[in-house]
């Protein structure tokens, strides 16, 4: 599997040195060392991380988190209409947030491995091309 | 060569001493960003990733609090959906 998709919960674990932060460090090192491996994250998941940090702390800290995120070897992806519709279908049929649905739709489209700390993605287990690894 | 400069095709030429100081390796990805009137070269390596790990420690934020916030968002979305349908959509 050559595509890693990062959920906001994985980046939150990394930036707070929570459980699994070391795993994220390892994935990041592999991303810079293995040219065939690619890291992705939706801009909506980045925005989710931003608002959660800002809600708990302030805008300045959220900006710090965003600067850290954008320095990582993870490509931010802006959802297009096709991805938005695929996410809408997931959202309509599963008890997940729309932001999570976008992350899941990106994982399915890229046939990648989702890296997450949030077990909410268990809702989607069994869907073709959807793979998740929890921290 | 003692000074850095931009070549016409957009490449940055660095002095050998700076390459050694930054421990830049062939094909190593780096992050470039602007700080004031300077361009900062940040090698993406294990040292840097360890620096960022735990960046938000001491800010009252944890993976657990963020999971709690995420869980709060779901009912908001359901409420919005219910509102849309009660409005006649």
What is the compact description of this entry?
The complex is a heterodimer of chains A (135) and B (89). Chain A is of the alpha/beta class. Chain A is 54% helix and 15% strand.
What characteristics describe this protein?
heterodimer, A: 135 residues, alpha/beta, 6 helices, B: 89 residues, alpha+beta, two-stranded antiparallel sheet, two-stranded antiparallel ribbon, 3 helices, 4 strands, elongated
Describe this structure in words.
The complex is a heterodimer of chains A (135) and B (89). Chain A contains six helices and five strands. By secondary structure, chain A is α/β, with parallel strands linked by helices. In chain A, strands 3-2-1-4-5 form a five-stranded parallel sheet, sandwiched between helices. Chain A is globular, with a radius of gyration of 14 Å. The two termini of chain A are 17 Å apart. The model of chain A has no long low-confidence stretch (mean pLDDT 93). In chain B, strand 3 (30-35) and strand 4 form a beta hairpin. Chain B is elongated. Chain B starts with a strand and ends with a helix. The model of chain B has no long low-confidence stretch (mean pLDDT 81). The interface between A and B is large, with 43 and 32 residues.
Task: Let me know the average pLDDT of chain A.
Answer: 93
Structural class of chain B: alpha+beta
Give unreliable regions of chain B as ranges.
none
What is the beta-strand fraction of chain B?
15-25%
Topology (elements, then pairings):
The complex is a heterodimer of chains A (135) and B (89).
Chain A: E1 3-6, H1 8-15, H2 21-33, E2 38-42, H3 43-56, H4 59-71, E3 75-77, H5 81-93, H6 98-109, E4 113-116, E5 131-134
Parallel strand pairs in A: 1-2, 1-4, 2-3, 4-5
Helix pairs in contact in A: 1-2, 1-3, 3-4, 5-6
Chain B: E1 5-6, E2 12-13, H1 16-22, E3 30-35, E4 38-43, H2 46-52, H3 63-86
């Amino acid at each position: 599997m050559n595509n890693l998709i990062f959920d906001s919960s994985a980046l939150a674990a990394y930036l707070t040195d929570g459980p699994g932060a070391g795993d994220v460090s390892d994935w990041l090192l592999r991303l810079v060392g293995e040219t065939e491996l690619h890291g992705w994250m939706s801009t909506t998941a980045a925005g989710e991380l931003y608002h959660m940090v800002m809600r708990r702390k302030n805008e300045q800290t959220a900006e710090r988190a965003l600067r850290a995120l954008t320095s990582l070897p993870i490509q931010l992806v802006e959802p297009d209409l096709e991805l938005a519709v695929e996410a809408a279908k997931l959202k309509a049929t599963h008890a997940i947030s729309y932001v999570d649905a976008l992350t899941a739709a990106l994982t399915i489209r890229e046939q990648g491995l989702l890296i997450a700390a949030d077990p909410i993605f268990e809702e989607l287990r069994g869907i073709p091309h959807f793979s998740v690894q929890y921290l | 060569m003692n000074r850095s400069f931009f070549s016409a095709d957009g490449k940055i030429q660095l002095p050998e001493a700076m390459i050694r100081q930054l421990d830049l390796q062939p094909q190593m990805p780096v992050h470039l960003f602007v700080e004031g009137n300077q361009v900062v070269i940040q090698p993406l390596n294990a040292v840097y990733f360890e620096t960022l790990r735990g960046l938000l420690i001491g800010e009252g934020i944890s993976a657990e609090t963020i999971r709690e916030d995420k869980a709060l968002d779901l009912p908001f979305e359901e409420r919005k959906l219910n509102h849309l349908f009660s409005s006649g959509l």
